[in-house]
From TrEMBL:
Name recorded for this polypeptide: DUF4249 domain-containing protein
Taxonomic superkingdom: Bacteria
Native species: Runella rosea
Pfam families membership: DUF4249
Length: 372
């Protein structure tokens, strides 16, 4: 096999609590080769869809988004003969609609790429996940940040290995309000409120927890995310939904081995790739490296809302006051009208879109359906 000369760059932080929690990000490489990354979870609970993502490792120096594998065939197979075909959604994402599974079956994933390569995982046993007990938060004494933690336990002491994913949404306002806009070289009332937006992010950080060294299967205050007040997420209202997955020991060991390898050496050893490449192999070329771990089970989730009023609101001032003709000529961002003494027509106060259009900050004006 061609040597993997350089190493996967993964940021690792090791925090010792009641269990071991390891956060890190997806693999990047410094060699020119690219390798398939299969991130897959089969949701056997019957309520939510299952999703598989197919992307490729990329150079650390490449700041673009990861390259997806498109038009692949993704199939989940049961060891009692059942098969389920995933539907391509786009951007490397493949989806299987919610359905009932035979929980007496073990499952594996088979991926066939447009490059005529086939990848096959080992069979995995669906893993039950205990409920999340609580999501808690703590504000720093100087109000400079907020820490979000999670608590869970398995009274049967059977889970022991955990993985968490989270999605965060926050509401924010702009300091200046725009009442008018220019369309077709005319000034009209702005019908859409672009002062308030909601932004959603799904961080790529992966979080692991283990209670294998503890008498009781209890996770207390495992860190999920740390939010600086300066991030602008905590001024009005913030929400986080955390999904909790029970892992098999093999699944946990895969992620743990990857974390430890990158922590101690800065990347992957090319001398022992089989120890960090998971439970998926390339069947068309046994020497080809592939990353990822396929697992199955019933996850749990919990959402909370916070209004901590942390941070300093953005400060902006209007830019100028222009006549109708000058505003249209400059295609200015309009705030409101200004009537000078004795004027027969108004002038328009203009501003920076970055101070009045919330969409410039990455959000959108559609209120989420779950928002209170």
């Amino acid at each position: 096999m061609k040597t993997l000369l350089s190493l996967i760059a993964v940021v690792v932080s090791l925090v010792m609590l009641d269990g071991c929690v390891l956060p890190f990000t997806p693999p990047e490489v410094t060699a020119a080769d690219r390798f398939l990354v299969i991130d897959g979870f089969l949701n056997t609970g019957g309520k939510d869809s299952s999703r598989i993502t197919l992307t490729y490792t990329q150079l650390v120096s490449n700041k673009n988004s990861f390259t997806p594998e498109l038009r692949a065939q993704v199939i989940v197979e049961g060891d009692k003969g059942s098969t389920f075909l995933f539907t391509e959604i786009g951007k490397g994402l493949y989806r299987l609609a919610p359905r009932t599974f035979n929980l007496a079956e073990n499952f594996r994933i088979r991926v066939k790429t447009t490059g005529k390569k086939e990848f096959l995982s080992d069979y995995t046993t669906p893993k039950q996940t205990p409920p999340i007990d609580s999501i808690t938060y703590k504000i720093a004494a100087d109000r400079s940040s907020l820490q979000i933690n999670i608590n869970t336990h398995d009274p049967l002491n059977k889970t022991r290995f955990y993985r968490w994913k989270f999605e965060e949404t926050w509401e924010y306002n702009m300091p200046l309000y725009s009442l008018y806009e220019i369309k077709n070289n005319a000034i009209i009332d702005r019908l859409q409120n672009i002062n308030t937006c909601w932004r959603t992010e799904t961080p790529s950080t992966i979080l692991l927890g283990s209670t294998i060294k503890l008498t009781q299967d209890v996770i207390r205050d495992a860190p999920i995310t740390h939010i600086p007040a300066s991030a602008g997420k905590l001024l009005i209202k913030y929400s986080i939904i955390v999904k909790q997955f029970g892992l098999t020991q093999e699944g946990y060991e895969y992620w743990n081995a990857l974390a430890k390898t990158t922590e101690t050496t800065g990347g992957l050893f090319d001398s022992q790739p089989s120890q960090i490449t998971g439970n998926i192999k390339c069947t068309t070329n046994s020497q080809e490296l592939v990353f990822g771990f396929f697992s199955a089970g019933v996850p749990q989730e919990k959402r909370i809302f916070l209004s901590p009023a942390l941070g300093i609101p953005q400060s902006c001032q209007p830019l100028d006051t222009l006549s109708i003709a000058d505003a249209i000529k400059a295609q200015s961002f309009l705030l409101t009208q200004y009537w000078a003494d004795g004027a027969r027509v108004p002038e328009y106060i203009t501003g920076d879109p970055g101070c009045g259009d919330c969409r410039t900050k990455g959000g959108n004006t559609t209120r989420p359906s779950f928002w209170p």
